[in-house]
Every structure is written in C-alpha cells, then in structure tokens.
Amino acid sequence: MTTSVTISAEDVEIGTELPARTVTVTRTDLVRYAGASEDFNPVHWNPRVAREAGLPDVIAHGMLTMAVAARTVTDWVGDPGAILEYRTRFSKPVVVPDDEHGATVEVHGRVAAKLDDARVRIDLVVTSGGTKVLSEARAVVRLPSP
C-alpha cells in the first residue's frame, strides 16, 4: 500500500529528501505491462531473444522503470498532474530473473532546485541491484500553495 504525502511550497527547501521507494518487478509484472502498453518486444519475455540481443536475460520495459521513478515524485507531491516536465536517460537495463524474487528497483529523490515560488526540480537516483539504471532522471513539479 502506498501512502501519499501532500507537501506545500512553504515546506520545501533545496535538499529536501523524498521518501525512498523500492519496487519489486517480476516476470508476471512484465507480462501485465506488455499487455497494458502493447509493447510485446520479446526481450521483455523471451530469454533466448534477450540473450541473442546481447542482454544477460529478460529486461524490464524502460517506460515501466521510468513510471516507478515518477510514482515516487507523484506520491510525494500528492498529485500526478503536478509533474510539468520529466526526463531521463536509460543507462542500464533492469534484468528480471525468472524466480519468485524478481528484480528490485530503488528510487531516491531530493529537491535539487527551487525554480520559483511554486516549482521545484527533483533529481532522482534510480538503481537496480546496486547499478544505476536511469541517468539524469529529473522532474519539474508545481507544488500546491498552502
């Protein structure tokens, strides 16, 4: 269960840490995401094809990884519509083993800049298995007024 935290522009300073998030991604999650996104690329479900593509095993969809990171921001700000900009680069894939444990994606974020009275930039660190999987991950959000 996820708990939303509503934050206001008055409460935020540069360096404010967002609550960390750890999400487990399993092969079942990949199948569900493929159905929802209509992204049926076999590197997300077929180990043979993933290995032929030079990958160690099946990998999570990049957009799924981005969504996990974005959810960290939207839960903190309390409104998915508050994200004005969101960008990242994919640095490493999230390899999802075929077991009951899956892969974990860890997200840490902090306020890196106050852009004006209501907008802040959030920088995110997104890792899996101790490896950074998203680089330059950041969002600009409009904070609610008190």
From TrEMBL:
What is the protein's name according to its record?
A: MaoC family dehydratase
Q: Indicate the segments forming the MaoC-like domain, all copies.
A: 14-113
Q: What PANTHER family does the entry give?
A: (3R)-HYDROXYACYL-ACP DEHYDRATASE SUBUNIT HADB, 3-HYDROXYACYL-THIOESTER DEHYDRATASE HTDX-RELATED
Provide the species name: Streptomyces glomeratus
One Pfam family of this chain? MaoC_dehydratas
Task: Tell me the organism's taxonomic lineage.
Answer: Bacteria, Bacillati, Actinomycetota, Actinomycetes, Kitasatosporales
What family is it from? Belongs to the enoyl-CoA hydratase/isomerase family.
